[in-house]
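Posting this for the archive.
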Amino acid sequence: MDLHGKCALVTGGGSGMGASVARMLGARGARVAVLDLNADAAEATAKEIAGVSFSADVADESSVKAALEETISQIGIPRVVVSCAGIAPASRILGREGPHELDLFQDVINTNLVGTFNVLRLCASKMAELDPVTAAGGRGVIINTASVAAYEGQIGQAAYASSKGGVVSLTLPAARELARVGIRVMTIAPGLIGTPMLMKMDKDVQNSLASQVPFPSRFGQPEEFASLVSHVIDNEMLNGEVIRLDGAIRLAPK
C-alpha cells in the first residue's frame, strides 16, 4: 500500500516499538496520529514526524473515541492502525504476600486485551467507510501486538500471558469478519525487544536474557519490529496470522 498522504494511527506511540512504528510510517509519507497515555511522550514522537498526538487510555471507550474523532478531523480516517500500547507487571498467582491481586489481573487484561479490541473495533468501523485502494478491494490493515509469552508464559506472567493469548486468539476471527469490508488483521508476537523497560535492567541481567536468544543472541530492536509492520502493510496476503519476531527463543519457566 502506498502510504503517502494516507492516515495511520499508532497506540503506545510515545516510546519503544510504537515510537519506531510511528517514525517508519512518517518516513513512508503517512500522516500519523500518535496515541499514548503519556501526553508528553506522544507529543515528542509526533513532533519528530510532523504528526498529531493525543493522550488516550486504550481501555476507555470515550478516550479512544475522542482521540479517533480528533484524528479524523485533523488528518483523516486511518487506513493503518498499529496497537502497541501495553503493560507488563509481574506477579505470582501464589506470592509471599498472598494470592495474585485480582485488580492487577483485571488491569492487565483491560489494557492489553480489552484495549486492543477497543481500538480495533472503533477504527474498523471508520475504516470500513473508506474507498478501496487495492485491486482486491483492500481498505486498510490493523496490526496488533501480542508476545511470545502468549505461548510460553513464565512464572509471574499469568496476567500478561493471558492478555497476550487473548490478542492471539482475536486475530483470526477478526480477520475473517472484517474480510467482507477489505480490512486485514494481523498480529506480531515479539520476543525480547530492546525497549526502555528492558534497557533499564542491570547490564548483567540484560546479557543473561540476550544469551537465551538462539540467533541472533541479542535483544531485538524496535526498528526491526517497525520493519515487520512495514512488510505486513505491503503484503496483502498476510492476513489472520500471528508472526513471531523472536530469534527462535522459547521462554523458560522462569
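The longest strand covers residues 183-190. Strands lie at 7-11, 31-36, 52-55, 78-83, 94-95, 98-99, 140-145, 183-190, 242-245.
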